[in-house]
Structure formats: C-alpha cells, structure tokens
Amino acid sequence: xxxxxxxxxxxxxxxxxxxxxxxxxxxxxxxxxxxxxxxxxxxxxxxxxxxxxxxxxxxxxxxxxxxxxxxxxxxxxxxxxxxxxxxxxxxxxxxxxxxxxxxxxxxxxxxxxxxxxxxxxxxxxxxxxxxxxxxxxxxxxxxxxxxxxxxxxxxxxxxxxxxxxxxxxxxxxxxxxxxxxxxxxxxxxxxxxxxxxxxxxxxxxxxxxxxxxxxxxxxxxxxxxxxxxxxxxxxxxxxxxxxxxxxxxxxxx
Length: 253
Ligand SMILES: Nc1ncnc2c1ncn2[C@@H]1O[C@H](COP(=O)(O)OP(=O)(O)OP(=O)(O)O)[C@@H](O)[C@H]1O
Hints:
single chain; Rossmann fold; alpha/beta; 8 helices
C-alpha cells in the first residue's frame, strides 16, 4: 500500500481503525481503514464496482453505523450531531418526484433548520445557477436526467455545508450538464467547501480532484496528491494509474 497522506491543515474527515461488515455478510467491507481529508480539499475516492465507495460514504454520512473504529467530521463522531455540517448528493435521486424544485428545496431547507426567508434566498440562487429557474414550479418527475441531477445537487447544498459528499454526481448526464455541475463544484470549493467525490469517470475526476484515494476490496491501494501519485507511478493519467493498481479483472462476478 502506498500512503502519501497530506498532513497540512485542519481535518474535515478523520477515519481511523474502521471495521465494518454488513449484517449476515461473509466478509467485512473494511478492516482497520484509516483515511484523512484536510479541510478545503477536492478529494476523490475511486475504485472498481464493489470496492466500498458507497459503503464508506454511507458510513461517513451516518446512513450506516459502525461499531469499531472512528469517523470524525470536523472533530465530531459521524452520525452524532453532524447532520448540519455536511451535504450529501447520493447516486439515487433524493428528492420527491411529485414536487417541484421549489417545493423540494423548501422541504429540505426546513429539514436543515433554515428559516423560510433563508431557504427562499438560497433556492432562488441555486435554481438560477443550476439552470432550473424556468421549471421551478413543475413536478420533478417531468424532468430530463440532467435536470434531475442538477436538482439533486441543489438539495445537497441548500444549507451551505462545509463539507459536501458526492456519489457519482454526473452519472448519465450530457456534456453540458456535467460541465455545469463540475463548474459549480469548483466554485463551491473556492468558497471553502470541502468536496468528497466518487465517480467512475476518471478524466472528469482528474480535472476536479487535488487528492485521491484508490480503494479496492475495502483497502486503500494508494492515497495522495494526484500529480505526486502520477509521478511516482510514472503514469500520464488517472486511468493508467487506476488500471495499474486495480488490475483488469472484473470485480462483480
Ligand atoms: N446492503 C448490503 N448488504 C450486504 N452487502 C452489501 C450491501 N451493499 C453493498 N454490499 C457489499 O459491500 C461491498 C462494497 O459495496 P459498495 O456498494 O460500497 O461498493 P462501491 O465501491 O460503491 O461499488 P459501485 O462502484 O458498484 O457503486 C461489496 O462487496 C457489496 O457487494
């Protein structure tokens, strides 16, 4: 295992000695996993199908709970009063299809404890930036895949979180929507939001992420700054590095 942890700055995420097994599963997903993400980073988590990316996201966001080891978000144990510290843009759409973008954002704004006025201010801004203003009062079920992805992102950031988890935020969208989402994520990061992103789209990932961890079968194969890892492994791009470290065999058979 190559470990090139970036040690500067305060931690947004600190994972140490994490063990996790799904109930009744034969094998654990994680055994003694440790990982640190400094505040302000654009961090990417990559690996083949079944590597453990979604499980780790779900553990960090408190959707799954763990008994052994520790996951701290800004120094607080995950799942214990950390909800307002982060936003989560999951792979599956997390909004109500029968409601409009405006109604969905009102609902989630209230859920995060924002005032009605603050929710309106944020919703107006997000719908404008993400190109959904004209359809703000239409039911989301009528939307294209790209519009749904943009709404999913808007909901994840309605409360201006310090830390944003993104699980394949551009899967299935056209080039224009992928560009708009990436551009918006970079803007958020410039304003201080730490990004934790996972995707199978490695060219997009390479443009967005400053530091990465490559995981396979629940273990970290490599971790560090993208340019440092590429230089160390004499690779031109993340795809080459990924294939060298994870191999070419299918994982989900
Ligand atoms: N609910 C579950 N119950 C039991 N095992 C599960 C469950 N969800 C995932 N797993 C197993 O945990 C391991 C990690 O899966 P996970 O979905 O976290 O991987 P991933 O890296 O997100 O994959 P993908 O790229 O396909 O989304 C796999 O072996 C998977 O089969």
